[in-house]
Amino acid sequence: MELRHLRYFLAVAEELNFGRAAERLGIAQPGLSQQVRALEAIVGSPLLDRSRRAIRLTLAGELLAREAREILASTEALLETSRRAGRGEVGRIAVGYVASAAYTGMLTAIVGGFRQASPDVELVISTLAMQQQLEAIAEDALDICFIRPPVTLPPGITSFPVLQEGLVMALPEAHPEAGGQSVRLAAFAGETFITPEHASGVSFHRHTVLACQAAGFHPRMGPQGRDFVTIASLVAVGLGVALVPQSLERIRLPGVVYRPVEGLAIRAEMAVAHRRAEPSPVVRRFIAVARKFRLKG
């Protein structure tokens, strides 16, 4: 028995007229009659009472019509779910992000855009250090990573930039340079610089080294922080100064101020990392949303 047998029989059962049922189905009436008789042969019992001028359902026909209606409805629902899965409208996606992605507003914009496009997708979001994210996506525990280049990506992983922003100097509120509207990097040649924790291939602190070398000195490195909020906290208690993304200014912490650095051309980048050959329609849909924010050039 095939689904078409049920579909044809149900049309006859609802119309109680072969002509109207055939027209509804868009097939010839003789062909419809043959299909119903084939179904009766499979069932082994008459489904229609043809002894009168107007056909009627037998008891077996009534029972089969009720079950056929449920089966066809369930089948259509299953097919629609499969179609939606193929379009990336249902499923699950795991997203990791460095904390600074949240206060740039980029995480909110991209995830919000994706949720609007795919409200039925289960979205699992985790704040993770960059190295943890890269390990997780390499092991298929994450699908998407929001990262801070420069970074060495695992094999099979690629990325594209979604944000660039300037760097500012975070310094203690009582620091002698805190009173001006901007600062010169050379004035901090004798200072201790606080940078993010780094592992092999994960080195935002490289921005600090390059900027200071361009200003004529090599920075003296001090404590490291797990994220930029931690770094700002270390600055606030007087353990050093730090070059941080400009978006960190949105995080107001007591005891720390932020000042533009005169002539500093280095910019911090935010990127979205994903598998180069992504099999999941859901993840591909997320990538498509994120690419709308991709930086040009």
Helix and strand topology:
Blueprint: H1 3-15, H2 18-25, H3 29-43, E1 48-49, E2 56-57, H4 59-86, E3 91-97, H5 100-104, H6 106-117, E4 121-127, H7 130-138, E5 144-147, E6 157-172, E7 192-196, H8 205-214, E8 220-225, H9 228-236, E9 242-245, E10 256-260, E11 267-275, H10 281-291
Helix pairs in contact: 1-2, 1-3, 1-4, 6-10
Structural summary, described in words:
- The protein has 297 residues and is α/β, with parallel strands linked by helices.
- It contains ten helices and eleven strands.
- It has three domains: 3-86, Orthogonal Bundle (Arc Repressor Mutant, subunit A); 91-161 and 270-291, D-Maltodextrin-Binding Protein, domain 2, CATH 3.40.190.10; 165-266, D-Maltodextrin-Binding Protein, domain 2, CATH 3.40.190.
- The chain has helices spanning 3-15, 18-25, 29-43, 59-86, 100-104, 106-117, 130-138, 205-214, 228-236, 281-291, and strands at residues 48-49, 56-57, 91-97, 121-127, 144-147, 157-172, 192-196, 220-225, 242-245, 256-260, 267-275.
- Strands 3, 4, 5, 6, 9, 10 and 11 form a seven-stranded mixed β-sheet that branches. It has a two-stranded antiparallel ribbon with strand order 1-2.
- The mean pLDDT is 89.
